[in-house]
Amino acid sequence: MAARAPQGARDKLAFLLALVPYLLDRERADVAEVAEHFSVSEAEVRQAVRLIAVSGVPGETDAYLPGDLFDIDWGAFEDDDEIVITHRVVINEPPRFSSREAAALLAGLQYLSALPSAGGHEVLDSVMTKLSRSASAEPSQLAVQSAGDADRILATVAAAVDAGLSVEFDYRTARGTSERRVVDPLRVDSVDSDWYLRAWDRRREAVRTFRVDRMSAVTQGSQAISTRPGDVAVPDALFSPSDQDTCVTVLVDVQILPFLGEYVDSVPDEVPAAGRVEIGLRLAHPDVVSRIAARFAGLMEVVDPVELRDEVRSWAQSALDAYETVPPSSDRAD
């Protein structure tokens, strides 16, 4: 086969990148054999091999030491025209996670394995073991705290969904009231660390969304569900707009916009990179605005309606007044 010289730097680079794995797959390779395989001249093969011998990656000191470079059997190369790589770098060492990266991934896998609805725990355990071993350094030991009652409630709800049985529970609404609900569970969804039950409420005869952490005294009924997931439309959005919703205008710091999620109803066309912006919220219950304001204290101000603004101010003042009624600690250090 006639030799063909690579044309330009791009072809030379492609040849070099293909040559390295070719040589690594073979214990020995003749210069003439390599030249014929890649359709290049023997002189170009020798030039490429000499370049490989001074290639590698810098070590921890950012300097190239002998162990950081490829090496070849120079005697076989110079005397017998044979190419033998005696020291390998880079190609046979895949990138490794740092200890911090591995710790973050392990924490996520621990969280997944702790979920009652997560299957294949053996697979997750195997992945975590391999990840710990393959990190560049020993990952930091992290523990994911269980949510306690919420996990048990979630397990009961998930089992009812799988079994197609009704669920009964006490539900604390955003207004702070509690009432007994009997529902046909349809599916379980999550948003960040919050879990929600999507279910057909038998009393209201409509699909409702329930936060798992507001459910208590949960029991799995013995009755089969009368409304199945295929019988009704369950929207992907957790909260669907309703004519009964309360629309609230608030002034918020732009940094909390991503955290307001589906509460946001309207946003200006142009949002500044920093500072405050006036937006609209749509809430199922007006009391929810107090909870949002408490979560983002100092970063949100209720503008309208005025009566809701006054209610939030009164609620915050009551919370402050409660601190004044707390007696001082008797074991305070002098």
Automatic annotation (TrEMBL):
Keywords: DNA-binding. The keyword DNA-binding applies. Residues 153-219 form the WYL domain. GO terms for molecular function: DNA binding. Residues 11-133 form the PafC HTH domain. PROSITE patterns: WYL. Pfam families: HTH_PafC, WCX, WYL. Residues 248-320 form the WCX domain. This is Possible DNA-binding protein. It comes from Mycetocola reblochoni REB411.
